[in-house]
Write a structure and sequence with these properties.
The chain starts with 6 loop residues before the first strand and ends in a 13-residue tail after the last helix. The strands form five sheets. A six-stranded mixed sheet has the order 6-5-4-7-9-8, sandwiched between helices. A six-stranded mixed sheet has the order 20-19-10-11-12-21, with helices on both faces. The mean pLDDT is 90. The longest helix has 35 residues. It has twelve helices and 21 strands. Helix 3 packs across helix 4. It is elongated, with a radius of gyration of 25 Å. The chain has 491 residues and is of the alpha/beta class.
């Protein structure tokens, strides 16, 4: 069955009105386009006379959103869309040429809401103490700046953008839409909207074509956002008969288990130790950031993105570091640093200094190692508790997808060896990158994915982990390397 893109163009030529043909512009547009139910906004009608009277062929930019075809622009020869992942830490955008059906630019910037706190809860508190409009405005400005930057990269105008498709967690989606978030973090944890659907840019203050289409992926609850819905679709999990697993680790961790018949999601704070700001050397995965390393005879060899001099370490690099420290006997099973020439005391705390043979030495403290071990414990305990809740063993899972910060350069063998994930074979694990962004990009090519997303959230069950007694019991053993009960890691 052929797919219908979210935005498409059709060129037509209209004869001038005559005494024998006095049809109004809207009638002539509908009939020439062959779209009887076509909706034509007032803003487009205002442009129609000037375009039609030229007597030349002109383009009609049409959206297949809103349930009926919608004419959103006329007389414009270029048409682009933006796929956008609104993350707690970053805004990631992809510029897509609707006419050529290809990507033309990509850009990632820091979420400007970071000024109100690096985590969602701090921003929620700021919003709920009378500063909501400020929080909303800053995010909207950040989105507009990102879109403008993509346009500059491609040499186009913002009004050449005819659609924006957004994926974000439930709170970020509410911030983007300017909705009240006060009921999300308190029992019974209810968002204002579950499935935002399609809106127009003029209604949201997004600086693209005023009648441009804005779509936000639906959430399945307060802690299962549109980014996860988009990620499930990107991984095609909801179409698989096999049981599959998606791990999305960013500021927090969400884990999805299921197939075409059922799906369950759990969320927890497993991500922060992989993010910059928690560890002083922790950085996002960019040029010069360590994603893997080895320690042999006390010598450290680092692998960095683009083979540049090391400037920090990302999530996969932290996994590798802790694994190598443990294998080299430099930390014990509890993560405590053993005495050695690379260990000193700085500001009252034991600190390990690493030199990769280039760049400034990197320092990691005892407390930062413990932070990481708590996060790796939370990750494994999420996996263990969630699979047990649906009677699934690790061996029943046919495919494991890893997205978010953790998926960049992860060494599955090392992650399993320290007890962060079960001992899945490396070939069973696939890194997918930013699945939220990928899902948004897919919807630009196939507008029917909006209906698929709406149907999907009806099948998702959310398991609350914050006070789950089994989670709390199992977490204590998972803090050790690899675990106080290593048999739990077996497949």
């Amino acid at each position: 069955m052929p797919t219908q893109p979210l935005i498409y163009s059709q060129s037509i030529s209209l004869p001038r009105a005559t005494d024998s043909d006095r049809r109004a512009h809207d009638q002539r547009l509908r009939e020439s386009l062959g779209l009887p139910g076509l909706h034509i906004p007032l803003a487009v009608l205002r442009k129609s006379a000037a375009v039609i009277k030229r007597g030349r062929p002109f383009s009609c930019i049409i959206s297949s959103a809103f349930g009926v075809p919608r004419l959103i622009d006329i007389g414009r020869e270029r048409s682009y869309s933006v796929a956008l992942d609104i993350g707690t830490t970053n805004l990631a955008g992809l510029l897509y040429d609707n006419l050529a059906a290809k990507d033309v630019a990509a850009r990632t910037v820091e979420n400007p809401q970071i000024d109100f706190g690096s985590d969602v809860l701090t921003r929620l508190h700021h919003t709920m103490t009378g500063n909501g409009e400020e929080v909303y405005r800053v995010l909207k400005n950040g989105v507009n700046e990102l879109v403008s930057g993509l346009c500059r990269m491609a040499g186009i105008n913002t009004e050449d953008i005819h659609a924006l498709v957004v994926g974000g967690n439930t709170i970020m989606t509410h911030f983007f839409l300017g909705l009240d978030v006060a009921t999300i973090p308190v029992a019974p944890f209810t968002p204002v909207v579950r499935d935002p659907g399609f809106r127009t840019a003029s209604n949201l203050g997004i600086r693209i074509c005023p009648e441009g289409v804005i779509y936000a992926f639906p959430n399945a609850g307060s802690y299962v956002g549109g980014d996860i819905t988009a990620g499930i679709i990107a991984a095609d999990m909801d179409r698989s008969t096999d049981i599959q697993l998606l791990v999305d680790v960013g500021t927090n961790a969400e884990i999805v288990i299921g197939n075409s018949d059922w799906m369950i999601v759990g969320a927890g704070a497993a991500g922060p130790a992989l993010e910059e700001g928690i560890s002083r050397i922790g950085k996002r995965a960019t040029t010069g950031i360590i994603y893997d390393l080895t320690i042999s005879g006390g010598a450290v060899t680092c692998s960095t993105f683009d083979n540049a001099e090391p400037e920090g370490i990302c999530g996969s690099g932290m996994i590798s570091l802790v694994y190598e420290l443990y294998q080299a006997g430099m930390i014990d099973q509890t993560g405590v640093l053993r005495d050695g020439e690379q260990v000193s005391v700085a500001d009252g705390e034991r600190t390990l200094t690493l030199s990769c043979g280039g760049g400034s030495p990197l320092k990691i403290t005892q407390g930062e190692i413990q932070n990481f071990l708590r996060s790796k414990a939370a990750m494994f305990t999420l996996l263990l508790t969630l699979t047990r809740s649906v009677g699934v063993s690790f061996g029943h899972i046919a495919r494991v997808y890893v997205s978010g910060a953790l998926g960049t350069g992860i060494n599955v063998k090392k992650a399993a060896a320290i007890g962060m994930v079960p001992a899945w074979p490396a070939e069973q694990v696939q890194a997918l990158g930013n699945t939220s962004l990928a899902g948004c990009r897919m919807l630009l090519e196939d507008a029917s994915l909006a209906e698929r997303a709406s149907a999907l959230i009806e099948r998702i069950t959310y398991k609350h982990m914050h006070d789950d007694p089994e989670f709390m019991k199992e977490f204590r053993g998972a803090v050790f390397i690899p675990h106080t009960d290593p048999t739990l890691l077996r497949i």
